């Protein structure tokens, strides 16, 4: 069996930075499972189903990518999927503290699960799901920063959330 990485996250929504990281992951792993945490602590803009749809559309032509959602602890999901590692992206020093804490906690929870960090491509270094939502909320153009389907879904979502819609 080939090497498998689980790339977990909220993906609310998926950005070109996430897509870039998956492509980098595929250079090291035979399969990358992009996995949405169902019980994320944040208050999401998109439902799990909407996020799955956007991820599936974004990776539909990329062999070796599977899209899924999971409940409970990430390390348990990694074991269930017989994966070899957790894949996470690092953009800047500001990401490090949170990632460091999460990786060490995951290691404490299961010594056999390793976390692999890859650097996001430079052109995506300033992009996050949060800043994309912030721009889109006030009508900013996000094309070129997120997959096309995300661009459309953001417009639909914010139009539907308008009080007079
Ligand atoms: O994209 P995010 O929001 O930074 O991703 C965070 C995520 C989903 C990777 C993290 O919250 C997670 O793994 N949640 C599942 C529960 C868990 O195992 N937490 C980490 C150890 S306490």
Please, could you describe this protein's structure?
With 165 residues, the protein is α/β, with parallel strands linked by helices. The chain has one domain (4-161): Rossmann fold (3-Layer(aba) Sandwich). 43% of the residues lie in helices and 19% in strands. It has six helices and five strands; from the N terminus they run E-H-E-H-E-H-E-H-E-H-H. The chain has a five-stranded parallel beta sheet, sandwiched between helices. Strand 2, helix 2 and strand 3 (65-70) form a beta-alpha-beta unit. The model has no long low-confidence stretch (mean pLDDT 95). The protein binds 4'-phosphopantetheine. 4'-phosphopantetheine is lined by residues 8-10, 37, 40, 73-74, 102, 105-106. 4'-phosphopantetheine (PNS) binds at residues 8-10, 37, 40, 73-74, 102, 105-106.
Bound molecules: 4'-phosphopantetheine
Report the β-strand fraction as a percent range.
Answer: 15-25%
- Helix content bin: 40-55%
Name of the CATH superfamily: HUPs
Shape: globular
Question: What are the segments in which pLDDT stays under 50 over at least 5 consecutive residues?
Answer: none
Could you say what the CATH topology is called? Rossmann fold
Amino- and carboxy-terminal Cα gap: 51 Å
Report strand order across the widest sheet. Answer: 3-2-1-4-5
Examine the secondary-structure arrangement and name the CATH architecture: 3-Layer(aba) Sandwich
**Mean pLDDT reading:** 95
Number of helices: 6
Structural category: alpha/beta
Instruction: List the domain count as a whole number.
Output: 1
Radius of gyration: 16 Å
Q: State the name of the first-level CATH class.
A: Alpha Beta
């Amino acid at each position: 069996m080939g090497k498998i990485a689980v790339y977990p996250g909220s993906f609310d929504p998926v950005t070109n930075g996430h897509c870039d990281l998956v492509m980098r992951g595929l250079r090291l792993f035979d399969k990358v499972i992009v996995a949405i945490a169902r019980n994320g602590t944040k208050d999401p803009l998109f439902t799990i189903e909407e996020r799955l749809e956007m991820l599936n559309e974004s990776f539909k032509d990329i062999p070796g990518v599977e899209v899924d959602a999971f409940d409970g602890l990430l390390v348990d999901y990694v074991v269930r999927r017989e994966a070899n590692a957790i894949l996470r992206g690092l953009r800047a020093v500001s990401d490090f503290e949170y990632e460091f804490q999460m990786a060490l906690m995951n290691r404490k929870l299961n010594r056999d699960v390793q976390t692999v960090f890859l650097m996001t491509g430079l052109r995506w270094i300033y992009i996050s799901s949060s800043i994309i939502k912030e721009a889109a909320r006030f009508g900013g153009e996000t094309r070129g920063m997120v997959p096309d389907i995300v661009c459309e879904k953001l417009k639909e979502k914010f139009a539907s959330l308008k009080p007079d819609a």
